[in-house]
Amino acid sequence: MKKKYHIFFLYFLLFAYLELINKVLMFNKLPGKEFLIVLLFSASLAFLFSFFSSLGNVKINKRVTLFLVVLTIAFYMFNFLYYSLFSLPFSIRDLELVSNALSFYEIGLHLINTDFIHILLFLLPFITYLLVQKNFYYEKVKLKKDTFRLILSLSLYGVALLSLNLDKVSLYSPYNLYYNLDAITTSTEILGMFTSQRLSIERSLFGFQEKIVMETKNESEEQVVEYNKLDIDFDALIESEKDESIKSIYNYLKNKKATNKNEYTGMYKGKNLIFILAEGFNSIAVDENRTPTLYKLIHEGFEFTNYYSPEFLSTTGGEFQAMTSLVPTQEILSIWRNQHPEIYYAIGNSFGRLGYNTFSYHNWYYKYYSRHITMPTLGFNNFMACQNGMEKKINCAWLPSDVDMINATFDNYSTDSPFVTYYITVSGHAPYNFMGGNKMANKNKDVVKDLPYSDSVKAYLSAQTELEYALSTLLDSLNKAGILEDTVIVLTGDHYPYTLTEEEINEVSSYPRDEMVEVNHSNLIIWNPHNEHVVVDKVASQIDVLPTILNLFGIPYDSRLLIGNDIFSDEEGLAIFASRSWRSDKGTYFSNKGFVGDADDHYITSINTRIANAFTISKLILEKDIYSRLDLEEGD
Question: For 134-187, how does the pLDDT look when each residue is reduced to its tens digit (9 = 90+)?
Fold first, then answer.
């Protein structure tokens, strides 16, 4: 009689295999010693699953086993595909985001097509199981033995928890990731997919309080410097506060260094502002001949050579960074969408308090990413998009034109100076093809037909051409209205074109880009016709846009209450990515392979701590409603 194996081994090998390929595919990294913890959690789970697979008769147990195998594979495969699309593991807080993303079904089909080989790797254990399923026991076991499996499951889980105590010091140690930090990307890499997802669900249901890590400060000789800082008595606030977590926030903010005012402070005071969040915009879209207006605005005035648009959960994450100067995570964006937090320094709020007329426009559905809820928190109560007015002015059928949006809305605000107008474009949206799914790519196809690139790249460049035409239209309209000289144009991309592969992006890029950091390298436009040409080599990103604008327009603010920094301050440049990788003026830290550049271990640890706190503080500022607790009216 052929030997049969315990069903535990099936589940253990299944979990171990799926955790292994997830680590390799998602993080491009072979497992290290921390993978032993993943195996302990996997063994615990395997005994639990084997318990459920032995409660009935043979027929029922086979069906339960098949169901659990399929469910497990689907769970891991979905999380991998989600990570491929958004560069972050899935969280239960992302259900609305998933719904929005999947409304573009062609993106899903494109993702499945480009990841087809990887999907086969996930399906391999299912095919293997079908071939070897007869080699396992499915008989119902006695209650005593079944109970023993539960005891083994709990025991192995306990051993896994005990093993976390081996390192309580390292910032991203398994212990800190399990108990103290809500860093789902790093947690998935170190603790494994299943454990990280379980922790995410627990924290969503029962809450979780991250800890702020005290940072070491380099004390320098006192200089006579004027800071973007308000006179907030944090000592009095700490003394009167009973909530320990709020006390820790006050203590952190009290000790955080403020950024200095500088020669550019107030240079745009009183001018109008038009802020454009450009869908999928990246520096690879810019060409002196093909996109002359974009090229002009990028290379005249302030020219930012080391600017990044980090992808955090698609457009909504890019929007949140640029508008609030806080780090977006699944939980933070959920608070933003559902709890109507006060975001005091958001662009609409900051300019609105000065008497500016505030407008915001989008040429897609007004409830997309819950903008009917989030726009008022940013200070834009005059928000128009498709299905709440825009459909009466433009053709809202997919894919709408950015040019049409500019033409349809310009007269609404052009005579209401001073104004701040926020445009969220959509013409540059994926999928990038000429097969009918992208109307803008087809509309501008002749512009790119002779370029030596793949069809996906040409479709992307063609779609971005509509943004070029929209900017040209906007500048022409401002000039005809006589307000061009009194208006500042700011433009940033929401994220890089993440449905293009690294290889496709490098077809156009002027230098080789990696898939974690440099794919996010982009352009920032801050332009007025009176700007002198100034090259800014400092590293910066979307999160720095708000404080930079506040400083340029001379709007009083406390820089300690924002995560980003005014790009023109003397603070070192830093770009933060969803994986907790980072790029500074001294080099690049890759979360999966370490630092590349010229810096010592103390510097690297210091930046890692700063970034961990940036994630924590961003959440706590909204969760604890910090802005409304402080007296921030000084100078307004």
Answer: 877 666 666 566 677 778 888 888 998 998 988 888 888 899 889 888 888 888
Which single residue is written with the structure tokens 């789970």?
45
Torsion angle, alpha carbons of 91, 96, 102, 108, to 10: -20
Q: Which residue has the tokens 């090998």?
A: 13
- 198-212, 404-418, 516-530: least confidently modelled range: 198-212
End-to-end CA distance of the chain: 85
Which neighbouring-strand residues pair with 534? 302
Separation of alpha carbons 426 and 430, rounded Å:
9
Identify the burial level of 624 via C-beta atoms within 10 angstroms of its C-beta, where 0-12 means exposed, 13-18 middle and 19 or more buried: middle
Rounded to an integer, what distance in angstroms lies between the CA atom of residue 386 and that of residue 407? 15
The secondary structure of residue 287, as a DSSP letter, is: -
Q: Which helix (H) or strand (E) holds 587?
A: strand 587-590
d(CA 204, CA 329): 13
Q: Which domains does the chain have, with CATH numbers?
A: 7-167 (no CATH), 263-570 (3.40.720.10)
- By DSSP bridging, strand 487-493 and strand 540-541 are unpaired
Residues in the chain, how many? Answer: 636
- Judged by DSSP in three states, 50 sits in helix
The DSSP code for 498 is T
Question: What contacts 246, CB < 8 A, 6 or more positions away?
Answer: 624, 626, 629
- Over residues 306-360, the pLDDT tens digits come to 999 999 888 899 999 999 999 998 888 889 988 889 999 999 999 999 999 999 9
CA 280/CA 425 separation, integer angstroms = 9
Amino acid at 332: I
The tokens 């535990």 sit on which residue? Answer: 8
Q: Identify the band that residue 1 occupies on the pLDDT scale cut at 50, 70 and 90.
A: very low
Long-range Cβ pairs for the range 173-182 (8 Å, 24+): 174/34, 174/37, 180/210, 180/211, 181/210, 181/211, 181/612, 181/616, 182/208, 182/210, 182/329, 182/331, 182/615, 182/616, 182/619
Per the CB < 8 A criterion, the answer to whether 517 and 306 are in contact is no
Q: In whole angstroms, what is the distance from residue 56 CA to residue 140 CA?
A: 6
Identify whether the C-beta of residue 442 lies closer than 8 Å to the C-beta of residue 434.
Answer: yes
At residue 633, the 3 state secondary structure works out as coil
Residue pair 427/470 in contact (Cβ under 8 Å)? The answer is yes
Helix or strand (DSSP H, E) at 597: strand 594-597
